[in-house]
Specification:
Largest sheet: none
Order of helices and strands: H
Structural class: mainly alpha
Radius of gyration: 21 Å
Distance between the termini: 66 Å
Mean pLDDT: 86
Number of helices: 1
Shape: elongated
Low-confidence stretches: none
Strand content: under 5%
Helix content: 40-55%
Organism: Streptomyces flavidovirens
Protein name: SPW_0924 family protein
Number of strands: 0
Length: 45
């Protein structure tokens, strides 16, 4: 029974966190115009 109560409390806390982040929205800002490297550069020729 304790495990069920703990799981319910954890689920409620996670849902509250998701709703809070959704209500606040994304932070304002800009993305960098320079692309990020997604692979390791090879040897220079």
């Amino acid at each position: 029974m304790r495990a069920l109560v703990a799981a319910a409390i954890g689920l409620a806390a996670a849902l509250a966190l998701v709703l809070t982040v959704t209500a606040v929205g994304a932070p304002q800002g800009e993305t960098s115009p320079r692309p990020l490297l997604t692979t390791v550069p090879g040897p220079k020729k």
